[in-house]
């Protein structure tokens, strides 16, 4: 599966974001962050105007019926992300 993610944040040019592709179904107890099973993550760095694009790919695991996208900006002062965005729907695969 492939997702192309475009992000614009003119207030924070040069900022780094982690972008993930998460397969479903998955247990509600399963983590969704970088390194979690059945996820693929890559970095997205905004350019000087605050825009960035990244393409992320992952093999479809057996039993997967959908996928969603997670975008998060790490926090310098906490393990919780400073910003979090997700796709508004589960895309069928």
Commentary on this structure:
It is a single chain. With 93 residues, this protein is mainly beta. It has one domain. The protein contains no helices and 7 strands. Strands 2, 3, 5, 6 and 7 form a 5-stranded antiparallel sheet that branches. A two-stranded antiparallel sheet has the order 1-4. The model has no long low-confidence stretch (mean pLDDT 95).
How do you describe this structure in short?
The protein is an all-beta fold and 93 residues long.
- How large is the share of residues in beta strands? over 45%
CA(first)-CA(last) distance: 8 Å
- Counted by DSSP, the helix tally is 0
Number of strands: 7
The succession of helices and strands, N to C, reads EEEEEEE
Q: Residue-averaged pLDDT, rounded? A: 95
Q: What characteristic shape results from the CA principal axes? A: globular
Helix content: under 10%
How many domain modules?
Answer: 1
Structural class of the secondary elements? mainly beta
**Biggest sheet character:** 5 strands, antiparallel
Please tell me how large the radius of gyration is. Answer: 14 Å
Low-confidence stretches: none
What structural keywords apply?
two-stranded antiparallel sheet; mainly beta; 7 strands; 93 residues; single chain
Please write out the topology:
Layout: E1 2-8, E2 16-24, E3 39-45, E4 51-57, E5 66-73, E6 83-86, E7 91-92
Antiparallel strand pairs: 1-4, 2-3, 2-5, 5-6, 5-7
């Amino acid at each position: 599966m492939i997702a192309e993610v475009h992000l614009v944040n003119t207030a924070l040019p040069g900022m780094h974001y982690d972008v993930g592709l998460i397969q479903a179904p998955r247990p509600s107890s399963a983590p969704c962050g970088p390194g979690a099973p059945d996820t693929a993550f890559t970095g997205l760095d905004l350019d000087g105007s605050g825009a960035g694009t990244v393409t992320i790919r992952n093999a479809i695991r057996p039993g997967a019926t959908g996928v969603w996208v997670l975008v998060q900006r790490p926090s310098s002062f906490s393990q919780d992300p400073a910003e979090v965005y997700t796709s508004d729907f589960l895309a069928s695969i």
